Amino acid sequence: xxxxxxxxxxxxxxxxxxxxxxxxxxxxxxxxxxxxxxxxxxxxxxxxxxxxxxxxxxxxxxxxxxxxxxxxxxxxxxxxxxxxxxxxxxxxxxxxxxxxxxxxxxxxxxxxxxxxxxxxxxxxxxxxxxxxxxxxxxxxxxxxxxxxxxxxxxxxxxxxxxxxxxxxxxxxxxxxxxxxxxxxxx
Length: 186
Fold this sequence. Notes:
The protein is an alpha/beta fold. It has one domain (7-185): Rossmann fold, CATH 3.40.50.11310. The chain is 31% helix and 24% strand. It is built from five helices and eleven strands, in the order H-E-H-E-H-E-E-H-E-E-E-E-H-E-E-E. The protein has a seven-stranded mixed beta sheet with strand order 1-10-9-5-4-2-3. Strands 6, 7, 8 and 11 form a four-stranded antiparallel beta sheet that branches. Helix 1 (7-21) crosses helix 2 and helix 2 (39-51) packs parallel to helix 3 (64-77). The longest helix is centred in the first third of the chain and has 15 residues, at 7-21. The radius of gyration is 15 Å and the shape is globular. The termini are far apart.
């Protein structure tokens, strides 16, 4: 593995922060760890390596490759493996709707307990309309989420400030959909 936890971790962390500050904007992931040949899954691994550490837990949904990547990330970061319904962070490789629906949303007193879901996404993109913090007026990004995932995201975030945050990885780019944005589909 060519990953440098200090240098690469810091640069990926900063890329994620840029994405979170500009919801719907694709931001380049500057380096990946080489944990998987699939660009989306390796990009998701980079994000998890940069953002997870001991004391956090990681759930996984999807392919055997995603399970292998999650196991490697847990070993390298000290994060604990857990079920999706109890996870602070979730790695998804494949359809995301059911996972979004099961993910913790936090409570009115602890909204920060809502999960962050990192989706290794490819395929058809959906154009959506975003508004809210970090968005000047509205924006219309194309994000590779199917209708079921998009509906699950909207439902999960219907009781603000509770909800989930999404980091959608497409190849070597990340798109943030934080719980604070309003989403409409076209």
